Amino acid sequence: MPRETPSARPISAQSPAEDAVLAGYRKSIDNIDAALIHMLAERFRITQAVGAYKAKAALPPADPGREHAQIARLRALAQDAELDPEFSEKFLRFIIDEVIRHHEKARAST
Fold first, then answer.
1. Which CATH number does the domain housing residue 49 bear?
2. Sorted alphabetically, which PANTHER family does this protein's record hold (predicted)?
3. Per mean pLDDT, which range of 17-21, 23-27, 55-59 is the poorest?
4. Which of 5, 53, 63, 106 has the fewest CB atoms within 10 Å, counting from its CB?
5. Mind listing the pLDDT tens digit for each residue in 37-47?
6. How far is CA 33 from CA 14, 27, 36, in A?
């Protein structure tokens, strides 16, 4: 399928910056993105506390059983929410890997 060139657009088409419908969608996306960042920040504050606790209690940084259960649970939630379970697993795996890295760092500093 050929790509649309600027000259192929109708002359009456508004630019994205002038399109009120598009602006409304983008505002909603921006609000959701902000909420995601705040939720991730809170999640990482809690997981850092978990990492400190694990380090003091001499527990391993990773918990493969917990990870497996969480991935299965969130894949099911994603499917119920009509979100691609593969995407949700990749996203969660990225977060888990970062959390484990923080836990390993906490363990090394004790």
1. 1.20.59.10
2. CHORISMATE MUTASE
3. 17-21
4. 5
5. 999 999 999 99
6. 25, 10, 5
